[in-house]
Design goal:
The structure holds two protein chains of two kinds. By secondary structure, chain A is mainly alpha-helical. Chain A has one domain: Formate dehydrogenase/DMSO reductase fold, CATH 1.20.1630. Helix content of chain A is about 70%, strand content about 0%. Chain A is built from 17 helices and no strands. In chain A, helix 4 crosses helix 8, helix 5 packs across helix 6 and helix 5 packs antiparallel against helix 7. The two termini of chain A are about 35 Å apart. Among the domains of chain B are: about 60 residues, no CATH class; about 130 residues, Dimethylsulfoxide Reductase, domain 2, CATH 3.40.228; about 130 residues, Barwin-like endoglucanases; about 280 residues, Alpha-Beta Plaits, CATH 3.30.70. The radius of gyration of chain B is 34 Å and the shape is globular. Chain B is an alpha/beta fold. Helices cover about 30% and strands about 20% of the residues of chain B. The chains are: A mainly alpha, B alpha/beta.
Chain lengths: ~475, ~1000
């Protein structure tokens, strides 16, 4: 890390954080002691939701896919919508841990741990759907290319669904490694603070006996870089491959070359929105305002407005190309999308993904936490509908009008979707109580450069009266210090 | 101390040592097993405790596994004495005939291991040699129906035949003794031998009267012929000879009389090619849209009463009369003029059951000189002989006590007589009431006795479809239940001991054998007839006597009736799929979408789109919930959902007969409402109907909602070239007419990839849109051949019907006066199939013969292929429809979807006897689709191989192809340049659907050509 940071930059660690000890104390505290009542309430609601999710899974497997609302024309609906949505959400974690690390964006340190955890959990939720949506789930192992005595019979390497299998399993593996390797020093920190023997034992194992020697740190840094290098192409490739499920087909509304960049932008867009939703809650619950500052939120909002606009351009490009192509099937597909029987889904998608995020062009809005929270949820609703619109409206009205149909979900569809969110939240709640939700070691690494206190001290040494940094949002730490 | 061993020399010493060594072995030499257990435990010193334990472990584990795996017990009974003609795995075909509710088909019954499983057309028949009807195809399922009576019954109790005979005979005797009369109430009996049996029965029981009625009555037509020509019979219509055909409310391609025959005949003059551009011109004047109307060159939509007014107009123009009440309509005028122009080669058919209307029709055909060419009494048709007075006579007779007893044979008046409800009370009060129904129906549930008849596939019989054209019916399976053929029962009651088979034979020997010259010796004649199924005897044309009916009076009666119908008129029609309701307990038929409306499982009120719009009765966004209205006609009120159908005139309502059966095997079959009570006047038009909203909606399983092909898109309103249409004039000038864009499409089909090579066969199909009438025979044939499950109304509402072959219908033109095209849609077996490359497990792939095939065992059901199929012909097994998976059956019925297949008996051992053993029954969670009947192709190939010759063109036929009455489907090997399909494939009219996607479909369609003057493009 660079030792110097411009005074023009807003601090990334709040003014009340004074020392490394304090960082350790504040970040490890949530994992120690008995969880608060609010946690228990949330956990039991989400836990029940997860049980219902499992019930719906069992129901589907026992009775068949017929319990869903699908029909002869719309053979994929909520299942694949949820799959793409969850995979997209996962993307922010990889982006933050890999690309932002390579670009040395220090603001990532406050949010990367939770974002990576979110990636893992989102991919778990996503992975359920392709495995569950098949007609004979007990034969899902057919999609893996394993040596067999059936000929041998191999999988079809031409099928985008098979590419999905590889993309997602790679993605999950790399994300898990990245997340876990980052956790090792922090587990060691928790171990070192532990008073109970069991706790010490468990966290020792979890940290792989981390000692914090110079050699270990050196290797740790190298590993991070290597994994970042591996994960970076994944940020682009995973959703590109997911988009191939549609792009390589012949269905109007699916068969478009714009899908890979459009899907990647959308994924990052929804991922950051989900990080915001979660972090704003965690920040409040665990009182981490000094580590996840308004500055972090603003940085994420900038990414959201950028990716949201990219997605918006993609929507308009699609409409334009449909008109310009002169291809009547595509022309109808997009006409139907915007003005057909699913117009409401398109309207929700447009307003949540393209229109509302434009508010982030205003700094005041970017730094308003309540607005950010609401908009982050809007984005996630919008992105779910984007996938729904792409999948369902394209299938419902395709080439032969004789086969057109309408999809409406059953309680099983809804149960599985809502249940997957409960599963996600359950995992996240467990994570928040047992793992440090903010990367302690990484935050410490920027304390000397980017914290409010360090900046103030540097300014004092330089004899500046600027109050620590020369941004527009001086907080006047020195003045406060002087008063004390 | 051991004995000393003395030895003479070294050799001896060595021998001795080796001897002692070998002495301890069981065998003198090592066993020739390498590495075997024996080796391992041998005394050689390499005895290995470890190996021993390994082997012990292995064998114990292997034994445990082998012993613990439950091996299903298959009970099979081998043929102790193998019947001579049955070879397991080889199908036998028996000629037979289907006759029910006035519909006739000469058929071949395919049996496998003694089970009839499929009905095929009897190609040797001169009447219906081309194909079959949908109902004939479905009739094989009714053999294995759970609603069949298994025993004779008294009330609800099963009794023995002896008891039944004793009691019924006693009752007959006592009625006879008391001087009471007994009615033998039947629908049309077309069997000469049965008629003889009835005659014998009446001879011994002179108090019995034979009353003949038809649920869908042609009494008016018969009576008019009696008046005009002195012959009470249906004339022999010859549509093939007609250059101009005008139909007035006669759905001759769908439900009218012997439509299977008429379809084939009609198609003769509709099959155009570059070489033969002669084409008949057809006009259809009708109120409710039918396939006949939409296949016509000119369809004239008029209100129900105006059908009659149009008839008067035609009568006026053709005969030069000036009867009042004629309809002023330019198209009707044109139709009449066309008739005149084609004098002697034209045909007017009228669907009305009014004697007066039929008198005018006869007058018109007479004036045109059509008798003797396009219709005549050379061989009168005997499929409808009933009289409207029969049911009334029975009703009155039972009421006033003239009839003390009543016997019902193939008659269900409680259901299909207007006053059925009151009749049922009278029947239950009668001294003797017997039904010979072979299955549960409304009448047999109120009669005192049920003496179940055999199913026709278990019976001997003969059918005289036309004078001198006889078909035989032979049993194809021994009786499934304790039933007895009706004729045998009557013979018993006539005091005869002869069996009906012998009786029939004798009858043939005396009456029919002399009327032919081909065979010498009765047995040669008999055996050949039974084998061929049909015999044409030399009979003289039926003599006619010119009557002198009062046409002026007939016209004025009609004109008056037209005025009396008022504004809101109801037309009661026979659905071309369900028919008169005799077979509306057949799940195959109920699930077939009615060709024009695409409604399954229900009847409904057909109205104009304007009516729905004006009164706010549009269905919901999903097109599933339809508003219910209360329709009141006279004293009868029906609550039915309304469906708007383009081409229905305003203030016109249509309700189909054949629904609303109550005495059926399962609640799921109790669908729709019974419209027979509306038929009080015997006429299908009811005037002055009123309606009110019922304030509720009902779900309807409509497989295709009303879309035309002109659709809005971002580039404006444009037409999809899925179907192609042209006019005869344009076609004569340019054989590519209507199909002009194909050259451009083909030119753009360039690819960088290597093209596919099909060295052997390259199976292809060509469907002529011109001759396809949308009759659905192919769809039912496909169901039967390929074990396609019935899914029930609930699943159809959810758009999950399983049909591999469907008939798409597209409207064009205005809502008031549209045209429509029917397009059978099935797997196109694309050589570049979009479904194949997306399957992750390669479960669907291409054969070297161009077939797109499914490996059901490999399919995991991602449904990606179904999504990526541009033709949407792939079907997914949403539930365990066939009951062949190891899921708990009880659980399977308890879920929300209520597995209809289970409840409809599709999982019952009895019903499953209809399954084709050559076709895999698919499990839950796999995709299925049309296979081009690959099992039939294999069969044909093997036959050719056994004969050591190349496969001939036309030898391999798909089920849909053989069922098609109009030969609209041509199938074969495109690699054989002489094959019919290869020639048609490259015809100017041929086009593939969505060819621009470069799917290279193996199914081609031929442009529809209409014989109209104006532009008729879709």
């Amino acid at each position: 890390m660079h030792a110097y940071e411009s005074d023009y930059r807003e601090p990334l660690i709040g003014p009340s954080v004074k020392s490394y000890t304090q960082i350790t104390d504040e970040l490890v505290r949530p994992t120690e002691g008995v969880p608060p009542l609010s946690w228990w309430i949330l956990f039991s609601i989400m836990g029940m939701g997860t049980l219902f999710f499992l019930f719906c899974l069992g129901w589907t497997i026992w009775f068949g896919i017929g319990t869903w609302g699908l029909n002869k024309t719309v053979n994929w609906a909520w299942d694949i919508t949820n799959f793409v949505w969850w995979i997209g959400i996962g993307h922010a974690g990889t982006l933050i841990s890999a690309i932002l690390l390579l670009f040395r964006q220090r603001f990532r340190t406050g949010i990367n741990r939770a974002a990576e955890a979110m990636t893992i959990f989102a991919v778990i939720c996503a992975g359920v759907f392709p495995l569950l949506h098949t007609g004979r789930q007990w034969l899902d192992f057919f999609i893996f290319p394993y040596p067999n005595t059936r000929g041998p019979l191999w999988v079809n390497f031409n099928s985008p669904l098979l590419w999905d299998v590889f993309a997602i399993s790679t993605y999950f593996t790399v994300s898990l490694l990245f997340w876990y390797s980052g956790l090792m020093p922090d587990f060691a920190t928790i171990r070192d603070r532990s008073k109970s023997k069991t706790r010490k034992f468990i966290y020792n194992i979890a940290s792989f006996g981390w000692q914090g020697t110079a050699k270990q740190w050196q290797r740790f840094e190298s590993l991070s870089l290597v994994l970042a290098g591996l994960a970076t192409p994944l940020v682009l490739s995973v959703h590109t491959i997911v988009s191939f499920d549609f792009a390589t087909s012949v269905i109007p509304g699916w068969h478009t070359t714009i899908f890979p960049p459009y899907f990647v932008a959308g994924a990052i867009f929804s991922g950051f929105a989900m990080v915001e939703t979660l972090m704003l809650i965690v920040r409040k619950l665990f009182k981490l305002e000094d580590y996840i500052t308004v500055n972090h939120i603003e940085s994420m909002n900038k990414i959201i407005v950028l990716t949201g606009s990219i997605v918006g351009i993609a929507y308009i490009t699609e409409l334009f190309i449909a008109w310009y192509s002169g291809y009547l099937y595509e022309q109808h597909a997009f006409y139907n999308r915007a003005l057909g029987k699913y117009w409401w889904a398109y309207a929700i998608m447009m307003s949540c993904n393209v229109i509302t995020p434009q508010a982030y062009w205003f700094k005041k809005v970017r730094r308003n936490l309540l607005v950010t929270f609401v908009l982050s949820i809007f984005v996630n609703i919008g992105m779910w509908f984007e996938r729904f619109v792409i999948i369902v409206t394209s299938l419902a009205d395709d080439f032969l009008p004789s086969s057109w149909a309408y999809f409406s979900p059953t309680w099983v569809d809804i149960g599985i979707y809502v249940g997957s969110m409960c599963l996600f939240m359950t995992l996240f709640l467990l994570f928040a109580r047992t793992f440090p939700v903010i990367a302690i070691a990484e935050v410490k690494s920027i304390f000397r450069t980017s914290s409010a206190v360090a900046k103030a001290e540097r300014a004092k040494e330089a004899g500046s009266s600027s109050g620590g940094y020369v941004g527009s949002y001086q907080v006047g730490i020195l003045d406060k210090d002087a008063k004390n | 101390m051991a004995d000393k061993i003395y030895w003479k020399g070294l050799e001896e010493k060595n021998q001795l040592i080796s001897f002692t060594e070998s002495e301890s072995k069981e065998f003198a030499e090592n066993l020739p097993v390498v590495g075997s257990a024996v080796d391992a435990i041998s005394t050689k010193g390499n005895t290995n405790r470890r190996d021993f334990l390994k082997m012990l472990g292995f064998s114990v584990t292997a034994a445990t596994i082998a012993a613990s795996c439950e091996i299903p017990v298959r009970k099979s009974i081998p043929y102790a004495w193998k019947p001579e003609e049955i070879v397991p795995g080889v199908a036998n075909y028996y000629a037979s005939a289907y006759f029910s509710a006035g519909e006739f088909n000469s058929i071949l019954v395919k049996t496998r291991e003694g089970r009839p499983i499929k009905v095929e057309a009897n190609k040797q028949s001169t009447v219906t040699g081309h194909g079959t009807s949908a109902r004939a195809q479905a009739s094989v399922l009714s053999l294995y129906d759970g609603s069949r009576y298994t025993n004779p019954r008294k009330g609800k109790e099963n009794i023995t035949w002896d008891t039944a005979d004793k009691e019924v005979k006693a009752k007959l005797e006592s009625i006879k003794a008391a001087g009471g009369k007994v009615a033998l109430f039947t629908s049309t009996v077309a069997s000469p031998s049965t008629k003889a049996v009835i005659k014998d029965f009446i001879a011994t029981n002179p108090n019995v009267e034979h009353l003949v009625y038809d649920a869908v009555s042609y009494s008016g037509l018969l009576d008019a012929n009696q008046q005009s020509f002195g012959v009470r019979a249906v004339p022999n219509y010859q549509f093939a000879k007609a250059k101009v055909i005008v139909g007035v409310g006669a759905d001759y391609l769908g439900s009218w009389l012997n439509h299977t025959e008429y379809e084939a005949d009609w198609a003769v003059n509709r099959r155009v090619s570059k070489a033969n551009t002669a084409m008949s011109k057809t006009f259809q004047i009708e109120c409710l849209p039918t396939t006949t109307g939409f296949k016509a060159d000119v369809r004239v939509p008029v209100k129900p009463a105006d059908e009659i007014a149009a008839l008067i107009a035609i009568y006026n123009i053709v005969t030069g009369s000036s009867a009042a009440g004629a309809l002023q309509n330019a198209k009707v005028e044109a139709a009449a003029k066309a008739l005149v122009a084609a004098k002697g080669e034209s045909l007017l058919v009228c669907g009305s059951n009014s004697v007066h209307a039929q008198l005018l029709t006869n007058a018109v055909n007479s004036a045109l000189g059509n008798y003797g060419t396009t219709l005549g009494f050379d061989r009168p048709v005997y499929l409808k002989q009933g009289s409207d007075t029969a049911a009334t006579a029975l009703f009155e007779g039972l009421k006033n006590g003239t009839y003390k007893g009543v016997l019902f044979y193939e008659a269900n008046p409680v259901y299909n007589y207007a006053k059925g409800k009151e009749l049922s009370e009278l029947i239950s009060k009668a001294e003797l009431s017997v039904s010979f129904a072979n299955r549960l129906d409304e009448t047999s549930s109120v009669t005192a006795y049920v003496l179940p008849d055999n199913h026709y596939l278990e019976s001997w019989n003969d059918i005289e479809v036309k004078a001198g054209i006889l078909n035989t019916v032979q049993p194809t399976i021994s009786k499934l239940f304790d039933t007895r053929q009706f004729q045998d029962t009557l013979l018993t009651y006539s005091g005869q001991t002869v069996k009906y088979y012998e009786y029939m034979q004798k009858n043939w020997e005396t009456n029919f054998y002399p009327k032919q010259t081909k065979y010498t010796g009765f047995w040669a004649f008999w055996d050949t007839t039974i084998h061929d199924g049909e015999v044409v005897l030399n009979v003289a044309p039926t003599a006619t006597t010119a009557g002198n009916p009062n046409l002026a009076e007939a016209a004025s009666v009609l004109a008056d009736s037209v005025k009396g119908y008022g504004e809101n008129q109801l037309k009661i029609y026979e659905s071309s799929v369900i028919g008169d309701g005799t077979h509306s307990d057949n799940p195959w038929l109920l699930e077939i979408p009615e060709p024009v409306t695409k409604v399954t499982w229900e009847n409904f009120v057909m109205v104009s789109p304007k009516f729905v719009e004006k009164n706010g009765l549009q269905p919901d966004l999903e097109m599933k919930d339809y508003h219910v209205i209360k329709l009141k006609a006279g004293d009868v009120e029906l609550e039915l959902p309304v469906v708007a159908v383009p081409g229905t005139p305003e203030n016109t309502f249509g309700v189909a007969l054949g629904f609303g059966r109550t005495a059926v095997n399962h609640d799921l079959l109790k669908v729709g409402k019974n419209a027979y009570p509306l038929l009080t006047s015997g006429l299908d038009i009811v005037g002055n109907v009123t309606w009110t909203k019922a304030g509720k909606t009902e779900k309807l399983g409509i497989t295709q909602t009303h879309h035309n092909l002109t659709l809005k898109g971002l580039g404006g309103t444009r037409t999809r070239h899925i179907i192609k249409e042209t006019t005869l004039e344009e076609y004569k000038q340019n054989p590519y007419a209507g199909n002009e864009d194909r050259a451009d499409i083909l030119e753009h089909l360039v690819t960088l990839y290597p093209t596919h090579n099909f060295p052997g066969h390259h199976w292809s199909m060509v469907i002529d849109l011109n001759t396809c009438t949308g009759c659905n025979a192919c769809v039912v044939a496909c169901n039967a051949e390929n074990n396609i499950p019935v899914v029930g109304k609930d699943q159809v509402v959810r758009a999950r019907e399983m049909h591999w072959l469907r008939i798409d219908r597209y409207f064009a033109g205005s809502e008031e006066d549209p045209t429509a095209v029917f397009q059978p849609m099935l797997c196109q077996h694309c050589d570049n199939a979009p479904c194949e490359n997306v399957c992750p497990v390669a479960a669907t792939n291409h054969s070297s013969e161009g077939l797109n095939q499914m490996a059901y065992n490999r399919c995991i059901g991602t449904r990606y292929c179904a999504n990526n199929c541009p033709y949407k012909v792939r079907r997914f097994n949403w539930y365990d429809y066939a009951g062949n998976d190891s899921f708990d059956k009880k659980w399977g019925t308890g879920n929300d979807a209520g597995l209809a297949a289970y409840q409809l008996g599709m999982r019952e051992p009895l019903t499953r006897m209809v399954l084709n053993p050559d076709v895999t029954v698919r499990s839950r969670g796999v995709i299925e689709k049309c296979s081009f009947c690959v099992q039939r192709l294999q069969d044909a190939k093997l036959t050719a191989k056994k004969d050591n010759r190349p496969l001939l063109d036309g030898e391999a036929q798909t089920a849909c192809q053989t069922a098609c009455p109009t030969n609209a489907i041509t199938f074969g090997d495109r690699n054989n340049k002489e094959a019919a399909v290869a020639k048609l494939f490259n015809e100017e009219r041929a086009f593939g659907v969505l060819e621009e996607l470069h799917t290279l479909p193996n199914v081609m369609y031929l442009t529809q050509v209409r014989n109209t003057d104006k532009e008729a493009k879709a």
